[in-house]
Every structure is written in structure tokens, then in C-alpha cells.
Amino acid sequence: MAEAGVLICDGQELMRVGLRMVVDSQSDLTVVGEAGDGEAAVAQALTLRPDLVLMAVRLPRLDGISATAQVRAALPQTQVLVITACDRDEYAYAALRAGAGGFLVKDTPTAEMLVAIRGVLRGDAVIAPSVTRRLIDRYVTDAIAPLTDKRLDVLTDREREVLGLVARGLNNTEIAGKLFLGETTVKTHVARILGKLRLRDRIQAVVVAYESGLVRPGG
Questions:
Q1: Where does this protein have coiled-coil stretches (predicted)?
Q2: Disulfide check for 59: which of 10, 38, 113, 157 has CB 3.0–4.6 Å away?
Q3: What is the 3-state secondary structure of the chain?
Q4: pTM of the full predicted structure?
């Protein structure tokens, strides 16, 4: 199995050293480069085309959120995992909107960080547990729009139903069982939802589902 190339971007050298040790300790991961600021991170990503970027939020010259957006726009196959010293909700929300596949705090245990790295590499969404509930309650609840949100007009009733279940955290197998559909049919619905709404992945679909009012926290 080929090693996954990882680019590390953090303004603190000590943090870069620590992340390098974590990554290089694994046989299926390898560090392909390091950057100390956001502009360098984008430049190196474009040159090295890593499988994953470990991105800090607070960076010189260009912040990590803006750098994430630029990397994801230019290299859609490159995943980004944002790792920050502060679990502020606005950072998490901005990171996910920018296209990051995950958001962790720097004091995450090594074993959990490696699980998150591999999860993001697979295309899964990974969010620090301390952030998840607050993220939904504070930002999504406050921003809820009525169900007249025009973005959802392109979806069929069945696609809206599937999107709602995706937003509730169900996987394809669980959705198939709940709606009495084949798993392949569910995968097709999810692909069409992402295509029609011009979304990169399931995590962006979740954000849209809550923002549009299709799904409401606790509902």
C-alpha cells in the first residue's frame, strides 16, 4: 500500500516537529514537506500535491482558513485537517466551510489524531467532540432559514429525505435500512445531492441541511 504524503503547516517549529514525529512513526504515512506560514503552505501544496495537509489556523502572511480554501479549490483531491490550539467554534465552522475534512485541537491524544488523519484521508468528516454540539447549537441554530431556501429546490423529495438522514449522521447502510432502499441506490442519491448542490463532500451537505432548515438540532 502506497504511503500517504502529508504536508505540515504550523507557525511554531516545535509543533511542526511534534506532528512530524507522529506522522513519520506510521508506516502508511510520510511527511513530504513543512511550511511555517499560510502562503508557503499553499505554494508547497501546489508543488508537492500531498494527500493531506495538517493546517494550523493562526499563521503568518495568510491565515489557515484562507489557505485551506485555496488548497481545496486548486487541489480537490488533497484533504485538509485543521489542527488548532483553540477549539473556538467560529474556527471550526469556518474551516469546514473552507473545505477542511476535519477540525481537531492540538492536545488531541496521538492515537486519536492518527484515527482522525486516516479518517480524513478516506474522505470522512472528523470534528473534535468538544466542538460538535456547540457548533450545531450556536451557529446552525442561530442561522436557521425557513424551508423556502432556494438551494433545495433542485432536489427531489427522496433526495431531501436522504439529505436529512445524512445530516443526522446516518451512513449509507443505515439510510438504506430506514428507507427500505438498496445501498447502491442510496449512494446514487448522495452523489446526485452533492452534484446538484455543488458540494465537495458529505460534511458540506450536513452544513447545508442545517443552514437551510431542512434539519433542526434536536428535531
A1: none
A2: 38
A3: CCCEEEEEECCCHHHHHHHHHHHHCCCCEEEEEEECCHHHHHHHHHHHCCCEEEECCCCCCCCHHHHHHHHHHHCCCCEEEEEECCCCHHHHHHHHHHCCCEEEECCCCHHHHHHHHHHHHHCCCEECHHHHHHHHHHHHHHCCCCCCCHHHHHCCHHHHHHHHHHHCCCCHHHHHHHHCCCHHHHHHHHHHHHHHHCCCCHHHHHHHHHHHCCCCCCC
A4: 0.67
